[in-house]
Structure formats: structure tokens, C-alpha cells
Amino acid sequence: MSLTSLVPLIGIADVVIGLSLGSRLFLIAVGLSLIFGVLGVLNFAHGGFYMLGAYFTLAVVSNVVDNFWIAVVVGALAVGVVGAAIEFSAIRRLYDRVDSDLDQLIVTFGFVLVIHETVRFVWGSGSYSIDPPDVFNFSVALGGSTFNAYRLVVIGLAVGVLVALWLFITRTYFGSLVRGTSSDREMAAMLGVDVPRLYTGVFFLGSVLAGLGGALSAPLQSTSPALGDQVIIDAFIVVVIGGLGSMSGAFVGAMLIGMMQSLGPQFISAGSIAIPFLAMVIVLLIRPEGLFGGIGE
Amino acid sequence: MSATDTGGRVSRFGSAVAEGWTRERFGLLGAVALVLVAFAPPFQVYLFTDFLVVALFALGFNLLYGYTGLLSFGHGLFYAGGAYGIAIVLRDLGPVIADVVGAGISPLVTFVLGGVVGLVLVVLVAVPVGWLSVRLEEIYFALITLAFGMLGYSLIIQDPAGLTNGTDGVIVLLGTVDLGGFSLRIGGRRIYYAISAVTVVAAVYGVWRVVNSPFGTVCKAIRESPDRAAALGIDVGHHRWMTFIVSAAVVGIAGVLRAGLASVASPGLTHWSTSAIAVIATVIGGATYFYGPIVGAFIFLYIRWAISRFPALEAYWELFFGALLIAVVLFFKQGAVGGLLLLRDRLFGDGGGGGGGALDDGQASTAADDGAESGDDNVRADRGDNS
Q1: ipTM of the complex
Q2: Which residues contact B384 (CB under 8 A, 6 or more apart)?
Q3: Nearest chain A residue to B154, by CA
Q4: Residue B367 lies in a domain
Q5: In chain B, how many domains are there?
Q6: Residue A62 — φ and ψ, nearest 5°?
Q7: Which end of chain B, N or C, is less surrounded by CB atoms within 10 Å?
């Protein structure tokens, strides 16, 4: 009896799909984690930002220019502007409160409802889909299974974003300001860092990343108003497992959950959707700082 | 407790109003109102029952949030626990009970027994979940309760034990009590309203007693300063755990009533978006007041109903509550009850926050940290009255 008949066969396609699901989760989770690490805000509306990224991209492709990549960039930046506006107009007012953490969570939850309903108002309740860009829209056959080549592009871009962010945070002047402010906000302010502006900047960056995740995922999923609510819970799981504030943690956590979503159902028939939540509970109890360290790691 | 205790800061007119409207009179007025509602058109009876259930849900949630500062995003788990408890008893034990007590009275016996089972089930879940959750605070507490809620959601959907009927949920058939010539349909709108009203009033009174008991006083001490309470020899973790269990039990009772009202126990009750309803109602009503969640639930249900009268807006009622939630947290943390008290002071008082009248139970927490300075002395004076 061969080994393959004992162990369910893991197709290469399943791995690629898992990694591409992980990539989109990474893009939303890393922004969530960055914002929490620097501002101390757990942004409930981050799933909404991801969803807006997908809708903006679809809107640009179908109404403005028929070029997917331009639409992705425009969509992600537009989400960044929305995020910065929310930080500037609402979240900023809460930093100095005594119990600011929970107030921030409740306010960003308010934006979950507002974004969800606005999207429904503008684009309706139906779902939209879009083809991957022509260059990558072909099937790859590997190890007896097939997948769309565009998934490889998404994985590659996610890795690229991780590297770029790491270089940005550890090697640039702005990155050092971010690290300094995240470890001691008062001291950074006394040393002349314009903290409010830096906060808005970090919120902009985190929102752009969520928007980018949504934009790049638009060809891989159907985009509907329910998307934000689904993806924010996955993102919470990822950042808890990886550690709130940790970028490498967000990457490993995202890939772990992505693979679990892709491969899990083959191994465990019942209870498979419960496992990520169980993992979240266990990590919170045993290692609330996550499996990986703090910001910049 | 009368307004004159505050040292003549209330105008004569104000104190007359405050003395005339004692808690007993408000209670009597409330009871009359509850009876009158039973004679309203059927839909209004249904809507009011819905309000009572959501109010109890939010009140239970706020026992934890308002009194210990722990924000749970997973209380849907206990809401569903109560609902599934009674639904499964009604489905699986109805015939057995009918054999024992006779078919005529059995729907009522099954309903009561189901409610008790639902409550016990919720407490059994809340004991370990609470014990684990209260080790964490703030954001981390919100996240772990969210995870527990969604864990319950996943298990109910996937139904490994074959009890919950997956995504369809369990249908609730309340049946008719038939005692030779006298029959009573438990699920009838007015009958069910009467059952709900009595249960909710009793539960609210129970919560009120807990809040004003020595236990509640300790909770308030912890809320004011966990470190100082701990220094006084209070076991902070233990008290939070106990509050968690009581809070879950209250929500469980609301869940039992929800199952009968909706005629189904559905998995959506465990979803975090259901847990969020308690958060919305509580914050809008004013988490720092005992009656805040009740007023918030009233606003939530009736504004939603009012919006639904306009077909063009009907689908977008959540937008309104999202915006309202943001506005309340940003600009007026005391919520609707705080607003009403402020309005009362403006109308009848000296505007300086005087008057420990009947409605204000002085359950303001430290969360009322901004813009509440003027009312702060008053709140502290009241707290002394109640404790």
C-alpha cells in the first residue's frame, strides 16, 4: 500500500490556493497590526477597507480605465484617503481618553456599519467579479492539478510587500520615527516628532495595505457587501496568532490560516471552521503577545 | 434619596417634581403602561416584546461592561445558549413530558422546563468561558470573547453532536395549553407578551438587586480602581468571573424569550453581529446608567421600526445606527439617559447637575470621563445613596 492512499493527497494546487488566500489575509492583517502597533487602535473597520479596495478597483476598471493595475493602485490609494479621513475626523479625538481602547473599538465598529451600508447603497447587494489581467489569466498544470497563474502573482506581491515594509520600517528615517513613536509616544513628541501627523500617516499606510489586499483579491473572489465582515474576523485571528503589532507574525499567521482554509476540510470533516477560533482562544490565553514579537520584527 | 439631599441646589419647582415622582410612582406608572401595551394592535405588541427581550440582552451585557469595564463581543453565545436550550427541550422532550404530566398542561411545563434548561446550559458554558476570559482585559478581553462566540457559532453550524440542526436552526413550537374548556396558546402574541413582560421585569429587578448588593458594591469598587480594590483584599479576578456568570445568565434568559418570540433558535444568534446589538443598544442608551441599555434598546427597536416605514430608507437602517454610535462615543458618552437627565436638569433644575431624582440611580462609571465633570459630584452623592 502506498503512502498516498493512507494520507490524503495534498495537491500542489491546494498549496498554491492556500498561499494565495494567505497572501490576501496578510495584506489586510499587516495593516491592522501596524495600526495597532503604532496607534494602539484595533481597527474593526479594516475589513471594510479591504472591501472598499475591491469595489474601488472594480469601479475604476469598469468606468474609467480598462487597466487592472492602474485600477489596483488607484483603488488602494483611495482606500488610504478614506482611512486617513476617518482617523483625522474621528479616531484622533479618542487618543487622550482614559479608556480609549474600547472607545476606539466601538467607534471603528460604527464605521463597519457605515461602510457596509454605504457600499450597499452605492453598488447594491449583489456580487461582482472580474477576470484576472489577461497576461496571467491562464491555467498552470502542476502535479496533476491546475490553478490560475494569477494566484502566483498575488503570492509574489505579498512577499514583496512584506520585504518592502520591513525595509521601510527598519532602514528609513520615517521608519525610525514610527518605531520610536510606537515604543514611547510622549518621548517621541518631546523630541519633536509630529505625532498626530505620523499617526495619520500610519493609518493611511495601513488602510492602503488593506485596500491593496482587496484590490488584488478582486479577481479571486466575488465581491459583495458581506465581504468586509467575513474577512475582518479572519484578520483578527491572524493578528492574534501572529501577535498584534508584529509584521512577520502577520505573514506567518496569514499563511497558516490560508493553508488551513485550503487544506483543512480534507483532513477534518467536522469542526474545521471551529479550529481557527480555538487556536485564537489558546494563543490569547497562553501567549497574548502572539507567537511572534512586537513591531518591526 | 430625595432631591433635597443635594443641599438645596435644586430649584423649588425641581424639588417638587423630584419629590412627587418617587421611584414607587414611576414603578406604578410603568406597570400600568406594561398592562396597557397588551391591548395595543398585534404588531405593536410584538414590537414591544421584541424591545423587552433586546433590553434584557443589553442589560445583561452591560452588567459586565458598565460595572466591570469588560467589553464582550461574544455575548451572543449566551443569547444562543438560552435559545437552543429551550428549543431542543421542546423538540426532544415534549412527548416525554406529555406522557408524565398529561397532554393538556404539558406545553406549559415543557416551556418552563426548557427555560430552566436553557438557563442552566448558559451557566454551564459561562463558568469555564468566564474563568478563562477574565484573565484578559480591554482589547484582549473583547477579542477572546469574540473568539469564544465564533467558536460556538462554528460548532452550532457544523453540528458535530447532531443537536443543533446546522444552519437551519431548531424550530420552536410552543403549543397550546388545554385544560378542559380553557385553552391558552403560549405563542399567541398577547400571551407571550405577558410571559415576557413578567420575566423581564423580574430579571431587571434581580439585576438591580445584584447591583445594589454588597457584591455590587465590590464590583463598583473594582470598577473605580482595580488596584485599590485588590489592595483592600478583594479578589478582583474572582469578582469579575462571578459578574461574567451573572451577566451571561441574564443574557441567557433573554435568549430563552428570543427563541419563543422568533419561533426558531438560529445560529445567527451566536454570530458576533448579534453580540454587537447589545453593544449598540448599551452605548446609545448610556453604559454608565443602570437603565441605559433599556433606553438604548427602546431607541434601537423603535427607530429601526420608524425607518422601516420609509421604503427608500428601509434597507439602510444600520447606516443610521453606525453614525449614531460614532457620534455618541465621540461627543456624548453618557448616551440617551445622560441626555435625558441633562434635559431634566435644564428644565427643572439649576442646570448644574443637581437632583438625585427617581430615574438617576447614579450608576455612572469612570467611563464617563469627558464632559461629565459638572455632573460628577452628583453622581458620587447618588452612589452613596444606593450602596
Answers
A1: 0.87
A2: none
A3: A274
A4: no
A5: 1
A6: -85, -20
A7: C
